Amino acid sequence: MRAIQLMLVDDHEVIIDGVRAMLRTHIDEVEVVSAVKTVDEAIELLTTSPLPDIVLTDARLKTSSGFELLEQITTQGIEVSVVFYTAYDDEAYLFRALRAGARGYLLKQATGAELVGLLRRVVDGEVTIDPSIAGRVALLAARLQLGEFWPGAHLGLTHRESEILELIVKGMSTKSIAQSLFLGEETVKSHLSSIYRKLKVKSRAEAVAVALRDVTFR
Questions:
Q1: CA atoms of 81 and 102, how far apart (whole Å)
Q2: CA 125 centroid distance within chain
Q3: Cβ neighbours of residue 151 under 8 Å, at least 6 residues apart?
Q4: For residue 32, is pLDDT > 70?
Q5: 3 state SS of 84
Q6: I need a labelling partner for 196 at 20 to 30 A (CA). Which of 70, 119, 169, 214 fits?
Q7: Is the dihedral of CA 159, 165, 171, 174 positive or negative?
Q8: Which conformational region is residue 77 in: left (phi greater than 0), alpha (psi within -120 to 50 degrees), or beta?
């Protein structure tokens, strides 16, 4: 079986080095043939060099995003599978990626063996979602199909953001929220920033005030 040819798109050198190191023991299964930090660099390689099997991109890049990369690949008719590889377990990002034509959405917490297995499924024609979020996403999709929504959806909050807001209202610290939801503290902080922006507030206290006024938690 030929090794999967992989292009990495990530603006953090440490992530690129980490993925290379993680896949080094799986060289017969996945080969990192190129690694770039910007959308422009990725498109240039994709239009001037032999195509890889998969483009593995972060959702957020310093000057752009994986979504813009996917859009350009689709617009230019480049025949390559795009898989998001990100720290954001946000269902809004996932749904957006899949609607745009991504073939997978994987989290950076995956081990080398797990990553190889998931990439192999993409090459075999499957649309692959990281197992750690697949169940939650399936449940959300079912609820949306039935017209059911989570608290805070009317304010633009994702399901994960709603969960975090509820725990804020209960007085839990960032560290406690992270432990409760099995998330990293930086991930929780990122969600908090998004919550503040959507609620048009600047502090935890203001967010709690809005929640108590406008959100009914089950």
A1: 7
A2: 20
A3: 162, 165, 166, 215, 216, 217, 218
A4: yes
A5: strand
A6: 70
A7: positive
A8: left
The identity of residue 165, as a single letter, is L
For 192, the token pair is: 């908090």
What six digits make up the tokens of 108?
A: 């950076």
In three-state secondary structure terms, 106 is: strand
For residues 127 and 104, the answer to whether their CB atoms sit within 8 Å is: yes
Q: What is the pLDDT of residues 145-196, one digit of tens each?
A: 555 567 787 788 888 888 899 999 999 999 999 988 888 889 899 999 999 9
pTM: 0.69
Question: 152's torsion region: left (phi>0), alpha (psi -120 to 50) or beta?
Answer: left
Q: What is the pLDDT of residue 181?
A: 85
Q: How far apart are the first and last CA of the chain?
A: 51
Q: Phi first, then psi: what are they for 26, rounded to 5°?
A: -120, 30
Residue 107 to residue 103: CA distance in whole angstroms: 14
